[in-house]
From TrEMBL, chain A:
InterPro entries per the UniProt record, alphabetical: DUF2063, DUF2063_N_sf
Protein name in the entry: Putative DNA-binding domain-containing protein
Start and end residues of each Putative DNA-binding domain: 3-92
Top-level taxonomic group: Bacteria
Pfam families named in the record: DUF2063
From TrEMBL, chain B:
Origin: domain of life: Bacteria
Protein name: Uncharacterized protein
UniProt xrefs under InterPro entries: MbnB/TglH/ChrH (IPR007801)
One Pfam family linked to the record: MbnB_TglH_ChrH
Length: 255, 308
């Protein structure tokens, strides 16, 4: 019976109506509509909570219409509603009315990734003192291994979605329409303490952090590029408080 | 003395670090409110006078992040109740085991005063509909619901309270009243009941039943907690309906029903439930304190009756 009930909630299917006590089909529909409305409105609200920047870009009306079409074809599978919208980005990519905003799918993917990261587990982070202690305790800092949390990831987008995301949450210091959207960006998504952080980084920094994530030593992680500034980059990692460990890698001495 | 806390529990409390006994007595004597992220900071800076906070289990199942962090801080100072909204006890298929394990782990960690769920379904064929959908009151459903409750109680290793639903239609195939269904469920599983007085008002209004008669038929001996919430009215032209919206203050008719409820159940832990259109926390605290004063009057009246 719940197969029909579910179909009635998500489609125009009327097979379930005969289960409903009422004096007319019109009344059956009005009563069922309360549940239809609860399902769609609560899921639209959930998507608004998960994708606030996407909503701000396209406006409430457009977002709600797009969300309604999405949810009827892609209802959630998990009772943990913050996980919803896993494939919303893919849906937007194929959603005809959104084609004029080619950066929108990447932005939605970024928002989902940030929320997922915020809810991931926490790791103990090193403070500035612990990092400098590790550096001063070795003769050759290039043998050090710097670790970031395993939940860290780096994204690259042909659009300035990181700046857009940051502008949205900047309390009005930056405006969404001031972002040069057609500029590609490297993004660092990393969690320190309770919340996911988003940093717009340059290509060399992205390569460097990727190398650290592959457990390369500091000496081997530095990209071959004149524009890379190791001191500045390390200062950022310390300021953002995203290092979980700094240890010396002992390589076997040749006999 | 009459009390709403079930005297016999089929499933004793799980073993674990016992909460301060002051938490238990505070929970029993002072009403609580819903815990919402917007209130975290204020709670931890001003420590308002309140009996307990209730969380929705599904909002606290992350491995990390702010929800679990703030819950862990707040539960050091206040009793907590855990209210599940996603186990789909009325569903036609087996309970989602992975989800149940996560909820059981949360309950085990938090050691709440109460763990409750709903007489409703929300999942079907791996789709979660994010609403509390109604079930037919027939023998087949009763058997299935009881199997699911047994399964949940054996996993969380404690009694679960099941909440009466707010509904917008009745099923042709129902063979018994909602209160008879609930009474039979209690008898077969040893579960307790969470009596949502707003749901009584909403459902009775929507189906043309007398809410006072409904309460008189309610298996009150099994009630371990009461919920009070606000509702709105649907403005369609076909049939007037009340909607269980949780986004308004508790209405006058629900406060009146609450007084009648207490005269039947005896004093009972009470929650002011609010999920949307969140007011400053002070408004919810004031509603909880109003519930406390109604409970005090009820206890005085009940003592006077005993004296006579």
């Amino acid at each position: 019976m719940n197969t029909q009930f579910k179909a009635a909630l998500l489609t125009e299917d009327t097979r379930f109506y005969e289960e409903i006590k009422a004096s007319s089909m019109e009344e059956q529909e009005v009563r069922l509509n309360v549940y239809r409305n609860n399902v769609t409105v609560s899921l639209i609200e959930a998507l608004c909570d998960i994708f606030p920047v996407t909503e701000a870009i396209v406006g409430d009306e457009f977002f709600h219409a797009m969300a309604r079409i999405y949810l009827l074809n892609n209802p959630p599978s998990s009772p943990i509603i913050r996980e919803y919208g896993q494939n919303f980005s893919d849906f937007i990519r194929n959603f005809e009315p959104a084609q004029s905003l080619p950066y929108l799918p990447d932005l939605a993917a970024l928002e989902h990734a940030m929320l997922t990261l915020t809810h991931s587990e926490e790791y103990d982070m090193l403070d500035q003192e612990a990092v400098s202690d590790a550096f001063t305790s070795v003769e050759d800092p290039s043998t050090l291994s710097l670790r970031v949390p395993p939940t860290t990831h780096i994204l690259v987008s042909p659009f300035a979605i990181g700046s857009l995301y940051q502008a949205h949450f900047s309390d009005g210091h930056q405006r969404l329409n001031q972002v040069e959207i057609n500029k590609s960006e490297y993004l660092l998504l990393v969690k320190s303490h309770l919340y996911a952080q988003l940093h717009v980084i340059n290509k060399e920094e992205a390569i460097f952090i990727k190398n650290l994530m592959q457990e390369k030593t500091l000496g081997n992680a530095v990209p071959e590029s004149d524009s890379f500034n190791l001191g500045e980059t390390l200062a950022k990692l310390i300021e953002w408080k995203i290092l979980t460990n700094v240890t010396q890698i002992h390589t076997k001495q040749p006999l | 003395m009459m009390s709403c806390v079930p005297s016999e529990q089929k499933h004793p409390q799980a073993e674990g670090s016992p909460l301060p006994s002051s938490f238990a007595s505070r929970f029993l004597s002072h009403s609580g409110i819903s815990l919402k992220p917007a209130y975290y900071q204020l709670i931890l800076s001003s420590f308002p006078e309140i009996g307990f906070f209730e969380i929705h289990a599904e909002n606290y199942l992350s491995k990390g992040g702010p929800a679990r962090h703030y819950l862990n801080l707040i539960r050091q100072h206040y009793p907590i109740t855990v209210h599940g909204v996603g186990l789909s006890i009325g569903g036609e298929h087996v309970i989602n085991q992975q989800h149940l394990e996560q909820v059981a782990q949360l309950v085990n960690e938090v050691q709440p005063q109460i763990f409750s769920e709903h007489l409703a379904w929300s999942s079907h064929d791996s789709t979660f509909l994010n609403d509390l959908l109604p079930v037919a009151y027939d023998e087949a459903t009763l058997r299935r619901v009881c199997e699911h409750i047994d399964h949940i109680q054996s996993h969380v290793k404690r009694q679960v309270l099941i909440e009466n639903p707010s509904t917008y239609f009745e099923f042709h195939r129902s063979e018994m009243s909602e209160t008879d269904f609930l009474a039979e469920m209690v008898k077969r599983t040893g579960c307790g009941l969470l009596l949502d007085v707003n749901n009584v008002e909403v459902s009775c209004f929507n189906h043309g039943h007398d809410p006072y008669q409904y309460l008189n038929n309610f298996p009150v001996a099994a009630v371990g907690q009461i919920h009070l919430a606000g509702h709105t009215t649907d403005s369609n032209a076909v049939v007037p309906l009340k909607i269980d919206s949780h986004d308004e203050a508790v209405s006058h008719d629900v406060w009146a029903l609450y007084k009648h409820t207490l005269s039947l159940t005896g004093d009972c832990p009470t929650l002011i439930e609010r999920d949307g259109n969140l007011p400053p926390i002070g408004e919810l605290l004031a509603e909880a304190h109003l519930a406390d004063s109604i409970r005090q009057v009820n206890q005085q009246e009940s003592r006077r009756e005993h004296a006579i």
